[in-house]
Each structure stands twice: as C-alpha cells, then as structure tokens.
Amino acid sequence: MESAPSILLIDDDRRLAESMAAWLVELGYRTEVAFCGKSGQACFQAGRFDLAIVDLRLGDEDGIDVIQRLRKGHPDAAFLAITGYASPDTAVAAVRAGAMDLLTKPIIDDELKLAIDRAIHQNQIASENRRLREQLDRRAGMENILSHDYRMLKIFDVIDSVADAKASVLVTGENGTGKSMIARAIHHRSKRRGGPLIEVACGALPDALLESELFGHVAGAYTGANTDRVGKFEAADGGTLFLDEIATATPAMQVKLLRVLQEFEFEPLGSSETKRVDTRVIFATNEDLGKAVVEDRFRQDLFYRINVVNIVLPALRQRAGDIPLLVDHFLRETAEACEREVEGFDRDALNAMQRYAWPGNVRQLENVVERAVLLSRSSVLTREDLPPEISGIGSDAICEIPDFAPESRVHVSAGSPLDSAGPADALTPRAAQQISGMTLKAALELPERQIILQSLRANGWNRVATADALDINRTTLYKKMKRLGLDDPRLQYAPETVTVT
Fold first, then answer.
1. CA 132, 138, 141 angle in degrees (round to 5)?
2. DSSP strand pairing (216-217 vs 229-230)
3. What is the C-alpha separation between 210 and 254, in angstroms, rounded?
4. CA proximity to 193, closest of 246, 143, 133
5. For residues 94 and 286, what is the distance between their CA atoms, to the nearest angstrom?
6. Inter-residue contact 367 to 334 (CB < 8 Å)
7. What is the mean pLDDT of residues 426-448?
C-alpha cells in the first residue's frame, strides 16, 4: 500500500498555516509546518517531503529564494507558491524558481486540493522519466558495439571499470575497429554523461589551427581572428573530450597537451588569461605509440601521461565469429533506412565474408552490407551481391591468407584453386589489396594464423597432435594461439571455410 504524500507548509502567518495544515491532515496528507525559511530548510534536511507549499513573503525572507535553495538541495520534491500580493511578474519569478503553480490568498479549498494533486502527479511523472533516462544512459554507448568475442567482452568490463575515473584513456586499434564508439560508450556510462562529448580529429587540422581548435583564441590572435573563440577543452568542461589520431600531433602541440593534461590549465591563443577546466580526455590512434617514442616521434612523458588505461581493439579478422552478428545489425539498419524488404545473406555469402581479411574492419563491413542491400534485386542476398574482392567472382578467389608465394595457395570451399601464376616473390593484385594499409607484422600473421587454425581443425583441436603436426613444441603453439586469437574455445564451432594445400 502506497504511503500518503507528505507536505511541508512554510508560512509566517501561524493561524493560517495551522488551519491549512489541519485541513490537509483531514484530506489524508502527512503535513508539517514551518514558520520561516530556515526552519523549513531544517525540516527538509531531517525528512523527505513530496511537496512544499511556500509563502512568498516570510518576514525578512524572500519565499522565491527559499524555493530555489530547497529545490537545489531536493530536486525530487515539488513546490507550490502562495501569496497575498500576486502580479504577473511574481508568477513568472515563482515559476522560474521552481514552483509548479502560484495560488493567491485567500486560498480556496478546492483550488488548493487540485493544485496539490496536479503538482504531486506531475512530479511523479518527472521522477519516473529521470529514472528511465538514467537507465538508458547506463546502457548508452554499448548497444551499438555488438560482439560475442571474449576480447570485446573483456573490453566492456574495462569500460565499466574506468567510466567514472578521470584518468586518461588511450584507445588503440586499426582503422575502422570502432575507437570512437568506445569513447562514446565510456562517456555515456560515466557520471559526466550529462555534460558534452566533443570529438576532434587531430590529423585533420594543421598545427596552428589545431591549437586554436583545442584552446581557443582571442580577437586579433592571428590574421582572420576577428572574434573570441572558445576552445574544445573549455567547451568540454564537465564532460569528455575525444582526441582522435593523437599520433599526428606535432612536437610543439605535444608540449602544450602535456601541460594541460598535468594541470588542466591553459591560455587561449593570444591571451595571457589562464583558464582551468574539468575535462576528461580520451585519446585514440591506429599507430604504435611505443614505437613512435623509440623513434623519437612522440614524447615519452606525454605517452606515459595518456597511456594510463590502454584499450586495444582487436581487428575484425581476429573475431570472425562476430561477423554474422554485425551483418545482421547493419542489414536491418540499412533495410529500414532504404525501405527495402531484405531477409538476409545466405550461408555461402556469410562464409565468404568470414573468410575475408577485412583490412577496413567494421567500417568496411558496414559499407559492404549497405552496398549489397542497395544493389540487390532479391530479398535473399548471395555471394554475387558482394564485391569481387570478397566474393571471388570475377577476381582472384579470396581468403584470409595473402598470396605471398605459390606454396601458400589456398582453396576455398565453394571455388576453384587460386591462380598460382607469376613469380614466387611477387604478390597478386588481390593479395596486395588484402594487405593494403596493414603493418608488416599484421600481414605476416594472416598466413600463420590460418595454417595453425587449419591444423587445429584437422587434429580435432588436439593441441598436442597439432604441435607435432606443425613440428613445434607445445609451449610455442600455446603462445602463438594466444597471440593470434586462436585460444577462444568458440572457434571450435565456427564454420570451416578454407583448407590449406
């Protein structure tokens, strides 16, 4: 059974206040009376009230100030204002202070009862909306990061752990892996979610413009600066600033960033005024910053400052089991946007997509799905609706393994042997496209991973037999499996799409 609403009546007219309180008790409300603003505030601190009825003239106190103070400390309560000297300006001021209604004395019983019921009901609705928004905010940012892969599940745990910390976060991974989505998820799951989230692509601006973009400038700071401009650090005060492509920052900019990250103070370009901000900063890059430090391209002290928490996003080829899940998500989004009736991809098309190396990662997958939906004439999408480099139709057959030499040729389950023509030290155009944009280390891992995967499958995932078949010791095999992402037990149930010959 719900308890009766509680009301605090604040009025310096004792006779009127006590009479009104007695009437409210008869109506079933739990009612207390305070005869000044200070005692009313003390009552609020001592107990919870659903509604406060405040006289706008409380001796030497201003009832509007009382409402503002109480509302600031107790945002879940509702407020009504009463006065014997009403005017349009008074009503506007009361509403701005937080009162839901203004009643004039002498108070009519039915009018007061109606105003109380309406205020309490509206406040209950507002409280429920706030609660639902908080629930959505806690989930925000994650629902679009779709994955069953154990690496991504660990990353989700890290996001929850660091969301409310002010420590800098460095998100690393290849282009298209979703670094900006991780930054948004951290922001939306933090206490800063009510503040702004501002994104800046450092590589898109020259150094002079980037400094103005981040720290702002005053009029006359440089040619064309006709007015003052607020920088992104200041605009993100109380929220989150996401700096993408941080590895492109010049040495001069790195020095400025180091200072603001240490002190959270800076001067706008052309100004001597020091500004202080409370901004949480998230960084992202597709480069190896540790290597950049060794090569003297990135400051070591800045690297340690931003690398407090490092979230490393796996490439899509390392979590091929997520491809059907991602494909289904992009398919539904594109079909709805284009108003197309699409059932989905057939198994052969999905197998082709799971075999592909995806140098552009999730972003490339999204574009491929959108292209297929737009160009297909059928509700069921097939391998023919995929680009040639993925389908293998009208081009070299595809696989995760680039064609480094004829000895590493691969047969696909639904196609013919790859073309092995050409010198052994040359790459086919298809292979060159596969490894375009990849580091040497990542490109070399592709054939190694596929060979180990095929041997595991051929030996029923018996690691001892696999190590013997590959002529390596078991410890080496275990380390390679962990490094290449083959230690996930769910891979045992993934479809076998390629065979090494």
1. 120
2. antiparallel
3. 11
4. 133
5. 54
6. no
7. 66
Does 463 or 369 have the greater pLDDT score? Answer: 369
What pLDDT, on a 0 to 100 scale, did the predictor assign at position 501?
Answer: 34
pLDDT of residue 410: 35
CA distance 411 to 398: 9
Residue 445 has what DSSP assignment?
H
| Nearest-angstrom CA–CA distance, 365 and 387 | 11
What is the rounded CA–CA span in Å between residue 99 and residue 364? 53
Task: Identify which of 332, 349, 364, 352 has the alpha carbon closest to the alpha carbon of residue 437.
Answer: 364
Instruction: Look at the block and give the residue holding tokens 């919870």.
Output: 48
> What's the pTM?
0.55
Rounded-to-integer distance, Cα 86 and Cα 275, Å: 44
List phi, psi (to 5°) of 319. -135, 60
Structure tokens at 322: 């997520």
The pLDDT value recorded for residue 186 is 92
Q: How far apart are CA 159 and CA 417, in angstroms?
A: 44
Please say if the pLDDT value at position 344 is more than 50: yes
Beta-bridged to residue 208, according to DSSP, are: none
Q: CA 226 to CA 213: how far, in whole Å?
A: 15
Which tens digit of pLDDT belongs to each residue from 248-286?
999 989 999 999 998 889 998 888 889 999 999 999 999
Question: If you average pLDDT over residues 38-59, what whole number do you get?
Answer: 85
